[in-house]
């Protein structure tokens, strides 16, 4: 089986009704990114940051995976698939994908403020009330915080993601503006024989020497086209 790796971003979930970050009307226009998505922002005003992610979690329960997520999951019938996602939602899981690396954390999980990457402190929040309150404690006694990788923090899952990308026969990038590192740098770890596809309705800056095949469509229509293009791959 060929190894197929997806690298997904906010555009993957746009058709499910979750805002992207940098498009016009995107989340970072409504909320200053440094206030709600940086470690300094959390240190300055933890209540505001908890409220922001509590709202994101409540929104998540009202949305569903789209056709694009389902087609990504269906590729497991023919390929050895890994999904590397920058998204903190759980829509790839809910669509049925099995091997998912979350580079920027997971919205439905909470962790310790003292040591966010301590596996003993990472917990899944209850689906019916996924709220973190000030005063809720992690296993190590520190304040519970969102399990999100904020700007200014390390990205521990980048190493396993590099491993996967470097073994890929096919890399498919969907719905990311490739603005945020180290995620955007993953394209540079493909081996020379790897075919790279990009599904995004807009132009995205990438290195032309990578020979990327750009499918200029949204996630669902773009995935349908990709399925046709990969029909004869085994
Ligand atoms: P961006 O908001 O930067 O980029 C979204 C991309 O999705 C753009 O290239 C859009 O053209 C594209 N897009 C819009 N609608 C689409 C659709 N229906 N189908 C396919 N593509 C579509 O989001 P990301 O690149 O994911 O990190 O942002 C990366 C990181 O920045 C996020 O993980 C987040 C943010 O700050 C953290 O919060 C730590």
State the gist of this model.
With 234 residues, this protein is of the alpha/beta class. The chain is built from nine helices and nine strands.
Task: Give structural attributes.
binds 2'-O-acetyl adenosine-5-diphosphoribose, 234 residues, Rossmann fold, SIR2/SIRT2 'Small Domain', 9 strands, three-stranded antiparallel β-sheet, six-stranded parallel β-sheet, alpha/beta, single chain, 2 domains
Q: What can be said about the biggest beta sheet? A: 6 strands, parallel
Number of domains: 2
> Superfamily at the CATH H level of the largest domain?
TPP-binding domain
Name every ligand kind in the structure.
Answer: 2'-O-acetyl adenosine-5-diphosphoribose
User: What proportion of the residues is helical, as a percent range?
Assistant: 25-40%
SS content category: alpha/beta
Which strand-content bin applies to the residues?
Answer: 15-25%
The quaternary structure here is single chain
Under CATH at level 1, the class of the largest domain stands as Alpha Beta
Here the CATH topology of the largest domain equals: Rossmann fold
CATH architecture term of the largest domain: 3-Layer(aba) Sandwich
Low-confidence stretches: none
Give me the number of helical elements: 9
Mean pLDDT rating: 96
């Amino acid at each position: 089986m060929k190894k197929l790796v997806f690298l997904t971003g906010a555009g993957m979930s746009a058709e499910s009704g979750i805002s992207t970050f940098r498009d016009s009307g995107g989340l970072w226009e409504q909320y200053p990114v440094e206030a709600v998505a940086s470690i300094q922002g959390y240190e300055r005003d933890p209540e505001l940051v908890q409220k922001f992610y509590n709202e994101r979690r409540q929104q998540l329960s009202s949305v569903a995976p789209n056709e694009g997520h389902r087609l990504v999951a269906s590729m497991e019938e023919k390929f050895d698939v890994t999904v590397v996602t920058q998204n903190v939602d759980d829509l790839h899981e809910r669509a049925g994908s099995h091997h998912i690396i979350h580079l920027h954390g997971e919205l439905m999980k909470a962790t310790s403020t003292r040591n966010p990457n301590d596996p003993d402190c990472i917990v899944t929040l209850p689906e019916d009330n996924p709220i973190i309150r000030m005063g809720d404690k992690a296993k190590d006694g520190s304040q519970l915080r969102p399990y999100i990788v904020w700007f200014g923090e390390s990205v521990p899952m980048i190493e396993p993601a590099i491993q996967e990308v470097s073994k890929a026969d096919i890399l498919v990038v969907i719905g990311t503006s490739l603005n945020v590192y180290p995620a955007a740098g993953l394209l540079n770890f493909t081996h020379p024989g790897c075919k790279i596809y990009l599904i995004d309705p807009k132009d995205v800056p990438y290195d032309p020497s990578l020979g990327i095949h750009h499918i200029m469509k949204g996630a669902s229509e773009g995935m349908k086209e990709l399925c046709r293009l990969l029909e004869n791959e085994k």
